[in-house]
Amino acid sequence: MNQANMTPEKELRCLEKLVGLNMLEKMLCSFSKSTGLKAILVDTRGNTLVSTDHEIKDCSFCRKIRSDSSGMRKCQRSYAQACTEAAKYGEPYIFRCHAGLIMWSAPIVLNEYVFSIICGQVLMWEPEDYFLEEIEEMVKGLNVDVSAVKWAAAQLEVMSSDKVQAASDLLFIVANQIMKSGMIVLEQRRNITAQQARLAEEIQARKRSEIAMRTIESRAFSINSLDKEHELKSLVRNGKKRAAHQVLENLLVDIIEINSEQIDTVKTRVVELVVIISRAAVDGGADLSVILQQNSLFYLELLKISKTEEICLWARGMLETFMNQDINKNQKNIIAIQKAAEYIQRNFRNKLTIEDISQVVYLSPCYVSRIFKQSLGCTLMEYLTHVRIEEAKTMLKDPKYNVMQVAEESGFEDPAYFTRVFKKSEGITPSRFKQYAL
């Protein structure tokens, strides 16, 4: 039966057969508990099929909008469009709903059926007067208290773009797992005893140490964990296996020590580590498609584990698999050169330095300069100048730009310097080039 002709009830029955609603609800609830964000599953018409209302309610702003039937229909249309767009591109789709909130959609495609997990109800900026005025325009025609809606808008959570991107990436991982129909055999457990002993020894050693006040310790713990995660990412990216395993051990001890009785929370934190490690592996030169496929298998394994010591053993195997990817130095250099070139092409209008470019590819300025020169036959600054000159030539052919405007728009701060560089490259001045081009 065509999905467009199915009722929401029939779609739910199909999901039950293809995925299993218990697993689906559990995954959505785990995501909501760990992120504090409401997640729902919708179809291509925007109908809500599965919701985490019993874990997290809609924000006050959304409840007020949806109290009106017309507002509810607009929400449904926003969800339908987000579901379609996410499925079209096969990746997370971050969008602004009809009422102005930031949300994101992760696609789920099961045979001929298309669904999407919707999450969000946040802002990416502090609400200012113009936004509140915009709210008034958006709710025009709805039977709602405009003042109350504005007040609710001012209370909305504000998330940075990095956090929104991280949450959408995590949601995408959850969506990918739902699309997998087979189950993978769990890792053999012959090393569990040794692993458990090592973790127990580390935990006991920490318990014997003198600790500060609980609130201070908690803050210090959070900062320390972030530092360790950054260190782990760097070690994986640079292929330092032994050191990466040690940092992972420390992080696992941290997680278990705080959440020893909350297995779902432990799993969620470990999923975050999977995201960090897999991204670092890709940055280090691993094949993205292979990494995404491996992520899917790992998550299916993790769902079946019920003990913390098994999770720790599983995590070690996961790190080992990622770091055993066949990555050679030349491949890493090619990827770094490509990223550097793409960064220059996107930002040539800005004032760029070799240090700026080297930070993007996680290499030292000297090293990235050397491999760029060896590979392309020109320096980073020569390539930057070439990109700017090509842009200038394009603009000079347009009669609406004069030479000074072209210099500024193509990244040259000094028109006189622009003229010298252009003549050296093209053999004629920009003014003469413009005369010939028009």
Automatic annotation (TrEMBL):
SUPFAM superfamilies per the UniProt record, alphabetical: Homeodomain-like
InterPro entries for the chain: Homeodomain-like_sf, HTH_AraC, HTH_AraC-typ_CS, PocR_dom, Tscrpt_reg_AraC-type_HTH
Keyword hit for DNA-binding: yes
Keyword Transcription regulation: yes
Ranges of residues in domain HTH araC/xylS-type: 338-436
Signal peptide (residue range): none
Superkingdom of origin: Bacteria
GO molecular function, one term: sequence-specific DNA binding
Keywords linked to the UniProt accession: DNA-binding, Transcription, Transcription regulation
Protein's recorded name: Helix-turn-helix domain-containing protein
